[in-house]
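ERR on first pass: missing label on line 2. Operator R.T. fixed the label and resubmitted. Corrected input:
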Amino acid sequence: MAILIYIARRAVTMALTLLAISALVFFIIKLPPGDFLTNQIAELQAQGDPSAAAKAEFLRAQYALDRPVWEQYLIWMGLWSGPNGISGLLQGDWGWSFEFQRPVNEVVGGALALTLVVNLAVVVFVHLIAIPIAIYSATRQYSLGDYVATFIGYIGLATPNFLLALILLFYLNRWFGISIGGLMDPRYMNEPMSGAKMSSILSHLIAPVIVIGLSGTAAMIRRMRANLLDELQKQYTVTARAKGMRPLPALLKYPFRMALNPFVADIGNLLPHLVSGSVLVSLVLSLPTVGPVLLQSLKTQDQYLAGFILMFVAVLTVVGMLISDLLLATLDPRIRFGKRG
Amino acid sequence: MTVMATSPITHDPLAPGHYVNPAPFDPVVSEAMSASEERFYRASAMRLIWWKFRRHRVAVVSAAFLLGLYLMLPFVEAVAPYGLTQRHSDHLLAPPQGVHLMHEGQFVGPFVYPYTFKFNLETFKREYVVDTSRPQPLRFFCSGEPYEMLGFIEGNFHLVCPPKDGTFFLIGTDRLGRDLFSRIIFGARISLTVGLLGIAVSFIIGLTLGGLAGYMGGWVDAAVQRSIEILRSLPELPLWLALSAALPANWSPILVFFAITIILGLLDWPGLARAVRSKLLSLREEEFVRAAELMGASRARIIGHHLVPNFMSHLIASATLSIPSMILGETALSFLGLGLRPPVTSWGVLLNEAQNLAAVNLYPWLLAPMVPVILVVLAFNFMGDGLRDAADPYS
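pass 2 clean. output:
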């Protein structure tokens, strides 16, 4: 029962957070003076095309760009009656992309799934890599392997990941002949889905996942190692060992579970970081995620497209944090009943 | 032990087997500290922090490295062999020119071999032919390209100059034939200041909001807490992108520079504010604060005199740890072309030229600006770690 109340409370907080984020995002996008159409109208008038200008004026009314910002925001959210009635994000209408002259869901539809896949793969990668290395580092403190892991960790923390992507892109291509830019080998581009195409996609995902996940992995290893080292010195671990428990179960059964706790709580901090990284790395590796479209739409003030992508990215993070919180609540009953610090 | 066990304990000084010194008891004498202990107990908090920090070797080396870099900033014109925008039209995209010491088995001191540009018509590649017959010694502490330091001090003194009638491109040149080494040194000025200015912005916001939340409590606390949560659940980079895309295109590069630092600081304050708040909440309950309150100290005095000095060391440590993310953020934004704009030159702006695969493939030295980025970020991380460990000297 307690867990249900907890879930409900967290879901309400999440909805409110997203509402606040949507307002913030829309406000930021509307910061630059003018909009996509004012630029276009200026261009058309310079070419002396009055009819096109009239058409643009019509479009302005059509997409409610002539109304005050707060009204535009409410219409976009689907809380206010716009030109098409009440139809906005809440109703599943994602708006119109001025630049691509298509509805937003057609422009980014395919990219959304891939963004999700890439980010999910990175989270899995970070955990799969970080946990074993951290355990190794903590149980063999100051060994050669520990130093190597720490060193790689620091490098991962300090190297700008877009540059790493660029360098990896180049060397993987030169040494192994893998073209890792883009999502798949160009020859599969227009073919139906097949085993070969799938494996091409997977092999193209390896490099981005490593590059995006590296700094997160580094941070996780550092924290996990410190947590585990703390736990390993505690008396219950010593007792378990003294009573003759075999080393591996003695490690995994008690100290590891204790060390895991702050680790799961940390996913919340990690996620925004990973999503940021995936946007940036996608730009360099020209992965068809939402990253490149976002940059383009921000530059051309394609407001509904940019707004939708920013919202999508925010939803991705916030929902991810919710999941990590729920995970934590199952792992540690204290959190369900008490307040989080 | 055996004596104690057999004889009964009495308080009579004259009782057999039990001796008590009749002289008056003086705790100062009996608990006398050695000179070094005395020094430790009387040291100020700052001094203790310094002693603790000093034990952290890597952190000290990093701090020295950063101090050196920052001290160099006013004098970059003299450190760089060439000017920022000086072009060498006959040396476009020239590779790095190695510095040698020995020429044909003879010691000549640091010198370079001259090279000339040749366009290979078969491979359509730029090639530079090195002439190893003519060593050209470098000149040190010399007068070379004239400059105006900080815009008003004229001079032509350089630490190192290219040889007479020769060139000295330690890391090669870019597509306009500008010396990359000099540009990296000039770029340090911007890249290193961005971090400091950004952290200053974030520090002011974080200190104010976190302080208000922690000290006032109530709805102020709730409001600040909620905004912290919202900002922390947003990925930084897309927001940075959106904010920098909002900068008007007709702003001067200098104005853009300040705007970018403010943008970087605007999203960084939640971490600091949260640290300030929790520190304040725990310090507020301490006895010395209660004592000050009872003695009638004003709110401002309690905050300024008792609370701030106590958590400042922690704040500085965590601020140091977030400078790297500012530097990396600026680099990323400039790399994407949404950050600083030429003629303002930062490491990110320089890396912008290395954006495509052709650059990595044909002119790998264009990636060189990433080396100082990595070094500086690492140094800040190490120094921050050391500071964080030393920040609480009484633990």
